[in-house]
Amino acid sequence: MIAIIDYKAGNITSVACALQNIGEKFIITDDTKELERASHVIFPGVGAAGDAMVNLGQKKLDAWLKDWIKAGKPLMGICLGTQIILDYSEENETNCIGLIRGSTKLFPADLKESGRSLKIPHMGWNNVELKRSHPVFEGISKDAEFYFVHSYYPALADDSVVLGVTDYGIKFCSVLAQKNLVAMQFHPEKSGRPGLQILRNFCAWRGNDL
Amino acid sequence: MISKRIIPCLDVRDGKLTKGIKFKGNVDIGDPVEVAREYYEQGADEIVFYDITASSEGRNIMIDVVKRVAQTIFIPFSVGGGIRNVEDMRRVIMAGAEKVSVNSAAVDDPSIITEGARAFGSQCIVLGMDVKKVKVSEKIPSGYEIVIHGGRKYTGIDALWWAKEAQSLGAGEICLNSIDADGTQEGYELNLTSLISDNVQIPVIASGGAGKPKDLADVLTKGRADAALIASMVHYRTYTITEIKQYLKEHEIKTRMLW
Question: How far is it, in rounded angstroms, from Cα B96 to Cα B67?
Answer without folding.
Answer: 6
